[in-house]
Design goal:
- There is one protein chain.
- A hairpin with a 2-residue loop joins strand 1 and strand 2.
- Helices cover 43% and strands 20% of the residues.
- Strands 3-5-4 form a three-stranded antiparallel sheet.
- It has two domains: 52 residues, no CATH class; 126 residues, no CATH class.
- The chain has six helices and five strands.
- It is α+β, with helices and mostly antiparallel strands.
- It is flat, with a radius of gyration of 22 Å.
Length: 188
C-alpha cells in the first residue's frame, strides 16, 4: 500500500493484554475507509506513522497580497521582484537538505526550479565524508507553504514595507485575509 494520510480529531492510548495501542478518532467517513483498508491488509512489514498537526494551505488571496507587497518593494528598492520573493522565501526557511554528487547538482537544480519561481536551490557546502558530494538546500516556494509559513512571509513583507514607508493594508484587512485560514481554529 502506498503512503496514506489519515486525518483524526482526537487520540488516546489504551492498554490491552499488556501492550500499548494508539487509538485515533477519525475525522470523517472517508478516513474510516482508508483506515479499515489499511488494517484489513494486515501488513506484515514494519511501518512508520508520522503524526503532525494539520494546517491548511495558503489561500490565493494571501498569495496575491504577498505579490502586491513584493511589487511595491521592488519598485521602491529598484530590485527585481523575483529577487525579493526568493529572499523572503529563504527567510521563512522551508527547505530540505540533500546530499548529492557535485556533478549532478546543475541538472537537479534546473529540474527543481523549472516552472516555479519560488523553488530554488543553494549549495550549503561540501561533504566532509564523501569526496565530490555537496550538501544542497532545496527551498520550497510559497505555493508549498502552509498557513503559518505564509503568515510569516506576509508579516516579513509588511515589516519591510513599513521600514520603506510603503503603504500596506490596514491591520483589520490583514487579519481578515489571515483569518480566512482559521477554518475550525486550524491556524497556529
Amino acid at each position: 500500500m502506498s503512503m496514506v494520510s489519515i486525518r483524526f480529531t482526537n487520540a488516546s492510548v489504551m492498554t490491552l493484554s499488556g501492550k500499548e495501542y494508539l487509538t485515533l478518532e477519525l475525522a470523517n467517513y472517508e478516513q474510516k475507509i482508508y483506515a479499515r483498508k489499511f488494517a484489513a491488509e494486515k501488513p506484515d512489514k514494519e511501518h512508520i506513522a508520522e503524526i503532525r498537526q494539520h494546517r491548511n494551505k495558503r489561500t490565493l488571496e494571501a498569495n496575491n497580497y504577498a505579490w502586491c507587497l513584493i511589487g511595491k518593494l521592488a519598485e521602491a528598492l529598484r530590485m527585481d521582484p523575483v529577487d525579493i520573493y526568493r529572499r523572503e522565501v529563504r527567510e521563512v526557511g522551508k527547505f530540505e537538505q540533500c546530499l548529492m554528487r557535485d556533478e549532478v547538482y546543475g541538472n537537479f537544480a534546473e529540474t527543481w526550479e523549472s516552472g516555479h519561481i519560488g523553488r530554488f536551490t543553494a549549495i550549503i557546502g561540501e561533504s566532509r565524508e564523501k569526496q565530490g558530494w555537496v550538501w544542497v538546500a532545496v527551498y520550497m516556494g510559497s505555493s508549498d507553504f502552509d498557513t503559518r509559513e505564509m503568515s510569516v512571509l506576509i508579516d516579513n513583507l509588511i515589516q519591510e514595507c513599513k521600514a520603506q514607508k510603503i503603504e500596506h493594508l490596514p491591520p483589520k484587512e490583514i487579519e481578515r485575509i489571515l483569518g480566512a485560514w482559521e477554518a475550525n481554529g486550524q491556524k497556529k
